[in-house]
């Protein structure tokens, strides 16, 4: 990439909540700092600031743009012009939708720069509950599901943004095979313009924990010391498959004493069978370090989501060698397989035993080591950036 460092700008949208994209940013930035070949910047758009604000922290320059609702393209262009300095090698990495405003501003102000979009989400997936076939039917005019006017406008705008923005991007990064296939088969984007780079995470596994240490952790979170510890984490919505939780728990053998632990802020009892209501260990929202500690005592996970790109909760389960019960829906089928997890079907399923769970743990851990380490993810991004700069 030459003697001078490449200026790398990550484009983020402000949110007061912690998301999977935040975890990606943390793992990505650690990797780029270790590489040392970049001047790193993070542009946070629609921030709660009145004026452009810059902060320098741990080798990264953070640039906060004020909220822009009116004349968004003009306002964004003005902020970019004021805050971003021209350099000979520039790469902008977009991490949110819509993409069109950023790519138009960057193409105008920095025509030599390279533009990469990472697909952390396809917003229309939520409208169609992860059913890509229903989405394609809707766009092609073969409507088989009812979509209200508001959702219809949103879906069509999302589709416009994808088609127009991805044409102008230098590279699109997909996090899962399902999205790669959508881009090539439905949107008609050339294979040469797409890279499949799965999310990755630094290994946090604590090995060799004694029974006493495990019992201490269980006691800390008020988890019963005996029985199978099953973890459910995150938001409980239709898209996240909350209505599947009861059926998934029904897959466990009747001889198993199940201790369900919920890490999240929603009402989990409303989604549980009557005999389990009020018996869940509800630990609420906890820090990442506490989650890593909690995983050390978890035997099995529930992953009921209807669609994902490359879930960091899923990666954490695999990292810790924890089999999950999952449904092979959009993106989830690319992360979990029967070799190291259990596939759920509302109509046909067999009882899961403790022996079957134990037999899949090593394969789950090996899947993480094979595909989801931070080192693998970051080396692929560095290779991609080198390729773009040298083109």
Question: Explain this structure to me?
Answer:
- The chain has about 400 residues and is of the alpha/beta class.
- The chain has 14 helices and 14 strands.
- It has an eight-stranded mixed β-sheet with strand order 3-4-2-1-5-6-7-8, sandwiched between helices.
- Helix 3 links the parallel strand 5 and strand 6 (about 115-120).
- The chain is globular, with a radius of gyration of 22 Å.
- The relative contact order is 0.12.
- The mean pLDDT is about 95.
List its salient traits.
38% helix; eight-stranded mixed β-sheet; single chain; 391 residues; alpha/beta
Secondary-structure map:
Elements: E1 6-13, H1 20-35, E2 38-47, E3 53-57, E4 60-66, H2 72-83, E5 90-94, H3 100-109, E6 114-118, H4 124-127, H5 132-139, H6 149-168, E7 171-174, H7 177-186, E8 194-196, H8 211-220, E9 228-233, H9 245-249, E10 258-263, E11 281-282, H10 288-295, E12 300-303, H11 312-319, E13 324-326, H12 332-335, E14 342-343, H13 354-371, H14 374-390
Parallel strand pairs: 1-2, 1-5, 2-4, 5-6, 6-7, 7-8, 9-10, 9-12, 10-11, 12-13, 13-14
Antiparallel strand pairs: 3-4
Helix pairs in contact: 1-14, 2-3, 11-13
